[in-house]
Please model this.
Amino acid sequence: MLRQYELVDRVLGYDPEADEALLNRAYVFSMAAHGSQKRANGDPYFSHPIEVAGILTDLHLDDETIATAILHDTVEDTLATPEQIEKTFGPSVARLVDGVTKLSKIEAQSDNERAAENLRKFLLAMSDDIRVLLVKLADRLHNMRTLKFIPSEEKRRRIARETMDIYAPLAERIGMYEFMKEMQTLAFAELEPEAYDSITKRLEQLKKGGGDQVARISSGIRLMLAQKGIKAEVEGREKHPYSIWRKMTERHISFEQLSDIMAFRVIVDDVEQCYRALGLLHERWPAVPGRFKDYISTPKRNGYRSLHTTIIHHEQVRIEVQIRTHKMHAEADFGVAAHWAYKTGGVIQPDVNSRWIRDLVEILDHAASPEELLEHTRMAMYQDRIFAFTPQGELIQLPKGATPIDFAYAVHTDLGDQTVGAKINGRVVPLRTVIQNGDQVQILRSKAQEPQAAWMGFAATGKARAKIRRFVRQKEHAENIALGRRFYEAIVARMPTGLKPEALDEAVKRLKLPDADKLMENIARGALNDAQVMEALMPGSSGQVGTNVHPSQQSVISMKGLTPGVAFTLASCCTPVPGDRIVGVRHPDAPVCVHVIECPVLLDAPEEDWVDLAWGDGSDGGTARLNVIVRNQPGSLGVMAGILGGQGANIVNINLAERDESFHTFIVTIEVHDVGHLMRIVAALRAAEAVVSAERMEPQAPLAA
Ligand code: MN
Model:
């Protein structure tokens, strides 16, 4: 842990005019306030705020920010009050501490409460003073560095997930790439430990196997530029494991296929030399088309400037090169923070008029901000969200594609049930109109209205769909009973002799049904055929008793595009899972057979038998076949099984299809939730060192019957 004088010396080292007394007061105040509290690793709690302050001294931040870091958990976690802070440290530090405290409170809320509300609060707190965000990011970074000491795995994963989804993108947003990378690396190690281990291990192997490639390539570039009269610093590094993993999963490629895992920076004196160096690199090594980006003439929105290109350095090895000046370089790693340092020639004055702080605040203040703020966020939770307003200005969060019906149900169930129309931004629109971010939506209602089956065609939220479905089902239920009763009367009319009055009650009992309504419903749905009904009413009355052909229901799979109750099966040739694009094929005496759209079997089925299908909501579960090739080495099979287990895939069958000295090929049948789950499993397998390849199997021609 940093000692008091060390911390103060660090700050004085870059800002001789810093308020030493302020820092000393903060140190003592925080130590007294946290008292004997302990961190999960047994360290005194007090070490945490001091380390956070230490991180911020690396960014050369001003004395108020450092004091805020030291005090950042006192109001939230100790008996200290905002009034005390203000009295002891002045209004400016008190305001900053209050900002950080607010952000921490949002963190403690449950996911649901937080989703929409937290972002707005976030933004408000930040537009106030960007230093609040810098302290919060440093706080999160230190918590990630010490994450492994938290005993509960669930809690560790939640923190890691949140870091990946919210804090790393925020750091990126304001140009703090070093923070972003370290957060991602630490979160990745927690969330995908096997993938992290295998990627790190393979990076090490690569280093051992190929000598120090990075150093060789760096000095080659430096030498080439020097010969042409450019004095350049060249830095090389392997990409961080998470960015490698992201590429592997996004492009569905294996580690071997990944050709650009090294990145280099060429740092020169001025802008002119940047472009000259670029020309020389392209002259010497072929450039990969489409990879050149000029962020010097057009900086990124967060202020980032550099030239980016990718070259083919030697066979199979592509390298990424970033070219920039020393000044750009300092700004590139620490974004907003470095920008301040340069502006004021080393002494830090937060400059609220700086262009990109203004930009940032503008983004944050704007209605569309949560989306834009998280534009790089990997988490669907925010990416596919829109925000709309009630006429009273209340914010309603909906999935993309939501319509006024969803909006109405999100506000209140009664409002949903009684919707007859909607106005968006003051204009009457059809109910199927898709709501856009920032729209103001007013629902027109009528007490006489009831939910309409047609709404299912455009309601997007689970809540709306569930309410509509339930209502429609109840209505259908009543209609089915009425329909069944008519069939029943027709059956009775066809029977040879009159029935006893108690025949219906006896039939219900014989069929082990709860009541006559259920019997009528079963008749309507075709679950009971005429012969079965006759037999139940008067044993021996039907010449032959048909077997109950009602299909057994698939567990949680349903189909859109089929009349409810019509039976279907999932084809064994192509084993569709929820999320696949599918087509059904009608058979005269068998259930509709569901195939993936690429299945060759479809080519043999006449088009008039095709049924256009989609997975019903909440469809979950299916089996899939994978072709997995592993190295012939001890433990390979165990690694594969471990990954499958770790990803929650139930193994139904493993078949050794082929083996030779080097490789074993397995056909693995697993149960998965859906296509997304399947893709994650494949990506995880591919990341393993023991696995050479993993593919979902192509549809197979069915065996001749
Ligand atoms: Mn903290």
